[in-house]
Every structure is written in C-alpha cells, then in structure tokens.
Amino acid sequence: MKRMYKAMLGAAAALAAAAVLVACGGSDTPAAAAASTTITGSAVKGPVNGATVNVYRVDAGGVKGALLATTTTGTGGSYNVTLTGYTGDVLIEVTGGTYTDEATGATRPLSETLRVATTSGAGGGTITGIVTPLTTVAYSLGQVGGTGGVTLATYNAALSSIASQFNLGTTNLVTTLPSVTGTTNAYGLMLRAVSQYVANGGTLNTFLNWTSPSSFQVAFSTAYGTINGTPISFTFNANGVTITGTGAGGGGGSGTCGITARGTVQGFPIDINYCVSGLPGSCDAGNSSLTQSLSAAGSAGGAANLTYTYAPSCAAGAMNITLQ
C-alpha cells in the first residue's frame, strides 16, 4: 500500500545568540546574572540507558566547539543538563549505553553516536532535545559544503525533509518523544523499523550516514512492514524530497524550476533555495502543480508569511524536490 508524501518547503532559520549585557561603570547596581539554558530530553533507539550525553557549543558557521556539559541518561533514556551562563546553539551527542532492541528483544550496546542540534536563543530557559536515529540522519543531511558544519538553518531544513521522507508530516523530531513500545506513535513506529532493518542484515552506520539512501529504501520498507504489521513504501534521497500525488495534473513532467522562499516560519526568518523538478509545465507562479504544492507545504509548515520567487534554473546547493 503506497502512502502519499507531503513536503514542507518552509524551514526555520537559526536564532543568533546575543551577548549578555551586564551593568558597569559608576553604578552600585549589582551585575545582572548571566542567562542559563536547561536541556531536557531523551535518547531513543529504544530508550538508551546509561549513555554519555555531551553538549557542545556551536559557532555561527555550524561548527562544533567547546564541550559545555556532560551528563548520563537514566533508565528510561531521559537526561537533564544545565548550561550555566550559556545561551544559544548547541550540539548534543549521545554515546555508549544500552537499549532493548525492539526487533529481537535483546539488550544491545549503542554502537554509533546519535546527535541532535537545537538552540535556546538569546534568552536561555528550558528547551527539549530528543536524540534519535532520525535527528542524527538530519544532522548528516544538513552538513554545509562538506565542512562538517551544521547551522540551525540547514538543520531545520533537513529535519523537515527527513520528517517528510519518513511520512511524519509536521512532527517536530527534536521535541516529540517517540513511543516504541506499548501505545506507539508514528515516530516510534519508524524507530522500530530501524531496529528491524538492522536485524534483517543492514547496519545502523549505513542508516545514520545517509550517503546513499535510495539503496536501502526497499529494505527499509520491508523492515517497517515486518515489525509493524503494515506495509508502507518510502522514496528516499540524500538532498531533498520526492512528492507523489501532487494533483492538478500530477508530476512526472520534464519541467524544472528554481524557487527562493523568503519570509518567516513560526517567527523565524528564512531565505532558502529549492530546485523543483517533474513539473508538467513551465516555471512560473501560474503552474498549477507547483502552486498547489507550495500552498499545501506552506499550510503544513505554518508558513503563511512566505513569498516565493521563480527562476528557470536552480541555485547551486538548492534542496531538491521531485514531483511524481
């Protein structure tokens, strides 16, 4: 049974970390306390117990910097860490520990590093960082120009792409806790399929690095049906999304269009390039398939404030969207 795929074209850009102002000069007023950030979350592949959680500073280019804090996950995979005097972008890495494999029931060591990136913005406070294979795949997909840097802008775009490719719609992969046992949710069902994919002979490393996703889409579809009892089809690619059932004449044509999306998504400014192929007609705002896809994607992503400009050629490094 084939699912229809829906792409979100909106992607939130990173909030820039601001300097903390303190009182100085001739005033006797005590200096204001520096803001702090508290991160709560879980490591899930099932729940990873006894894992090391390292939190790193991330610079403006998305490059991992100094270690800010370390903690350990509890028996349910949860963790809590406070970054005293720090606000802004962070990379969270989870290593070691053990989890119960959903496919085999065996207790296994976590053999690969799981990652998630997030931000507190300038104001600090409490934020959520759920760490899973899918947030790790998004980190791999979001790497900038082969430098290893992952800005929040590229990471959020990659998260939207991964959520779409795994049929999770507008699920926030960073803040939604997957449920892999008992009353499962859609996110949890995908992680169960990752376990079955590995049990069937795949490797977690292959899945996480996402270098050739098209090579394992059939194997992953099989794994999903095996462990969850419901067949499903996936179309993966390493730099975008494939949308079927676009309506209004469908996709599968030979037209290509470069699109720049500018505006705000949920209050965040964005400026992102897309390359849409498979259009049945020319590249313009009147193309019915293109307009319908953009409208649906904007509605799904809360992107009502986006404006689009069109060009007959695609910008270098644009995220690919294929209409079928």
Secondary-structure element sequence? EEEEEEEEEHHHHHEEEHEE
Task: State the distance separating the first and last CA atoms.
Answer: 17 Å
Please state the overall shape, judged from the principal axes of the Cα atoms. globular
Main beta sheet strand tally, sense and closure = 5 strands, mixed
**Helix content, binned percent:** 10-25%
Question: Which key features would you list for this structure?
Answer:
Immunoglobulin-like; 2 domains; 324 residues; disordered N terminus; globular; single chain; alpha+beta
Task: Summarize the structure in words.
With 324 residues, the protein is of the alpha+beta class. It has 2 domains: 1-237, Immunoglobulin-like (Sandwich); 240-323, no CATH class. It is built from 6 helices and 14 strands. The strands form 4 sheets. A 5-stranded mixed beta sheet has the order 10-14-12-11-13, covered by helices on one side. Strand 6 and strand 7 form a beta hairpin. The model is unreliable at 1-27, 245-250 and 296-304 (pLDDT under 50).
